[in-house]
Amino acid sequence: MQTDLQIARAATKRPINDIAARLGLTPDQILPYGHDKAKITHDALAGLTGPEGRLILVTAINPTPAGEGKTTTTVGLGDALNRIGHRATICIREASLGPNFGMKGGAAGGGRAQIVPMEEMNLHFTGDFHAITSAHNLLAAMIDNHIHWGNALDLDTRRITWRRVMDMNDRALRDVVVGLGGPANGFSRQTGFDITVASEVMAILCLSRDLADLQDRLGRIVVGYTRDRQPVTARDLQADGAMTVLLKDALQPNLVQTLENNPALVHGGPFANIAHGCNSVIATRAALRLSDYVVTEAGFGADLGAEKFLNIKCRLAGLAPAAVVLVATVRALKMNGGVAKADLAAEDVAAVTAGCANLGRHIENIRSFGLPVVVALNHFDGDTPAEIAALQDYCAEQGVQAILARHWAMGGAGAEDLARAVVALAEQPAAFAPLYPDAMPLWDKIQTVCTHIHRAARVEPGPGVLDQLAAWQAAGHGHMPVCIAKTQYSFSTDPDLRGAPTGHVIPVREVRLNAGAGFVVAICGQIMTMPGLPRHPAAEVIRLDDLGQVEGLF
C-alpha cells in the first residue's frame, strides 16, 4: 500500500496556469510560485463580480486517535462534484510546522483525495506563516522599543498582553523573561510565546476583506494597558503600516490543485481552539465568485469548528452555507462508544450504536443553525457491513442520510453519491441564523454556546472574568462574537470524556480581547496556546533520502 507521500509524488500535476484557467483567471491575474502553485493577485480579487456559488461546510464528530478524515472528505467531495459536472473549488487552511513535526501531521488530505504539492504545502509553502510570524514579532519588538526610549504612551509593563510567536511546538517558551542583561537591553518583564497559528495577526489576516481592512484591523490590536487602565493599540505605536507591508503578499490566496487537477485555495490557518479555525474570508469569497460550489472545512469537531465557522466567520463575513457535511467513521464511533484504540479491528456493533450519541449531538447542533446536514461515512477497510448498517440505521432514525464514501481509496469516484446528496440538499432553501444576536451581552454569549452547543450544566467564571467582560462591554466591544477555547476531544473540558456528556461544568479561567480580529476569546479548562512536542515527535524520523527527497513527513 502506497503512503500519502508516495501517492502525492506520483501525481500528474497540471501547470498552475491551466488550473487558473479552470477558474477563468488569466496568467496576469496570478503570481506563480514555481510551476504548481500561485497566488491570486489583489487586482484580480478586486475585479471579481457576478453571482456567488453555493458554500458547503465540511465538519466532523469529535476527533479521536482513530481518525475521522475531515480534510480527506473535503477534497474527495470537491473532486466528486467536479466529476458529476459542477464547477467546484476546495478551500482549506494551510498547515502549521508545529503539528507537522510533532504528532498530528499535515493538512492536505490523504490517500487518493489529496491536494498537491503536498510536501511544500506542509512545510514553507509560499511563506505566509513566516510573514505572519514576522509581523506579529515586529509589533512585539516595537512595544519593548517604545518602553526603552521613554515610554511616552505610559504603558504599564505589568499589563502588556501582546506575546511573541513562532511556528513550532516549544513548551520551554510558554513563559519567559525578556530584557535581561542590563539597561542597554531594555526593561525586564515576564512574557511568553504562542504558536503562530494562535496569533491574533493570523486571525486578522483570515477575516480581512482587503489590504485596507487588514491595516485597519491590525491598528485596532490592543497590546496592553496604561497605568490608568487605558488600552494601547498597534496604531498608537505606529506599527500597523509596517505590519501591513509584511503581510501584503500573504493576504493573497494560494492556488494549488487536487490529485485530479481540480482547483484548491489553501490560505491561512488560525488555531481552531483559540481562534475561528478556518481558511481565509478572502479565499472563500474569491472561490464563491469563481465556482458553482465551494467546499470548505472547519477545524476539529463540529462543536468547536462548525460553531466558530457559523458564529464568527459567517457573521463577520456575511456568509451563509447552503448545506453541511458531517464526517464520521466507524472506528471513531467505536472509540466514542468505549472501545480502546488497540481493539478497534474487532467488529463491535453495540459500540458503534453507543458512539452514535456523539454523532447525534452534532446533528442536533448543526440543525439548530437552520442548516440541512448529510453524514459522510468515511470508509476504512476494516469496517464491517453490520457496523455500517448500524450507523446508517441510526442516521435514518434522525432523519439524516448517511452516505458511504470511499474517496480515500478511489478519489472523487468514491464520493459521487455523497456529491449528489450534497447537491440535492443545497438546492433546498435553508434558514441559516447564528446562535445568538450581536446585542447579547458577552457573558451571556459565552453561556449560550457552552450550554447549547457543549451541553454544560453551568459555566463558572474565574476571578476577574466578569469584571473584564463588563469593562469591554462598556468600551464598545459588546457586539463581538465569542470564541470558546477548549479541548477538541470532548463536549466537556475533560479530553477523556467521550460520547455525549451532559451535566458538566465549563470553567472559564480567563478571557482575551481580539479587538482587531473582532471577537472575544474565553479560555476554558487547560487549553494551551503553545503546544509541546510528544515523547517521540515526528521530527525524529523526518529526513532527506539519498535522492534528496523528504522522507518520514507522512
If you had to describe this structure to a student in words, what would you say it looks like?
- With 554 residues, the protein is of the alpha/beta class.
- Helix content is 34%, strand content 19%.
- The chain has 19 helices and 25 strands.
- The strands form 6 sheets. Strands 1, 2, 3, 4, 5, 6, 14, 15, 16, 17, 18 and 19 form a 12-stranded mixed sheet that branches. The protein has a 4-stranded mixed sheet with strand order 20-22-23-21.
- β24 and β25 (550-551) form a beta hairpin.
- The longest helix has 21 residues, at 128-148.
- It is globular, with a radius of gyration of 23 Å.
Structural class: alpha/beta
User: Beta fraction of the residues?
Assistant: 15-25%
Total beta-strand segments: 25
Number of helices: 19
